[in-house]
Automatic annotation (TrEMBL):
GO-annotated biological processes: 'de novo' IMP biosynthetic process
UniProt protein name: Phosphoribosylglycinamide formyltransferase
Annotated binding of N(1)-(5-phospho-beta-D-ribosyl)glycinamide, by residue: 12-14
Domain Formyl transferase N-terminal: 2-182
Positions of the catalytic residues: 109 (proton donor)
Catalytic activity: N(1)-(5-phospho-beta-D-ribosyl)glycinamide + (6R)-10-formyltetrahydrofolate = N(2)-formyl-N(1)-(5-phospho-beta-D-ribosyl)glycinamide + (6S)-5,6,7,8-tetrahydrofolate + H(+)
NCBIfam families: PurN
Amino acid sequence: MKNIAVFASGNGSNFQAILDATRSGELNATIQLLVCDRQNAYCIQRAEEANIPSFVFTAKQYESKEHYEAEVISHLKELNVEFIILAGYMRLIGPTILDAFPGKIVNIHPSFLPLFPGKDAIGQALLANVESTGVTVHYVDEGMDTGPIIAQEKIIIDKDETKESLEKKVHDIEHVLYVDTLKKLFNQ
Ligand code: GAR
């Protein structure tokens, strides 16, 4: 059984999918902590409802990234967390956390990387008028969505696609792909 922490900044639908898979026994992991950088994010409520502790912080209240990352690490170590799972966490992971968890940080990104890294990847794909986009699960390095790819899935963009319809397709695939990929990493 792997002890994991999920980092999220928003709605937390991927957090929920991972949580459900741990609770059903499908995924051999326990979420020890939710780490969130936005006070009003819905993922915090999801954690509360599931009795999962959360560490919620405001980056601006710290002297530097190094300072808040050091505090995050102290919570993770206390809870024996082995893996960090980023699920819509909209901050770059700095060297402090990268050095403390080498090769143990995974992210999901809503595009077929290396295409459309960074913010609003779904909007970027629509604007670029491409025929397909996708979802990527990858290890995290110091770059923005640049680490080694673990799994990817393509998504066709239909002619009458809207931002809302594409977001739904992306999220539906993310929830399945993330859990399946984590199963391969943890259920050995
Ligand atoms: C997901 O689509 C995730 O891939 C994306 O944020 C969304 C969070 O949704 N992450 C990134 O763009 C990271 N660069 P959720 O809060 O409902 O899980």
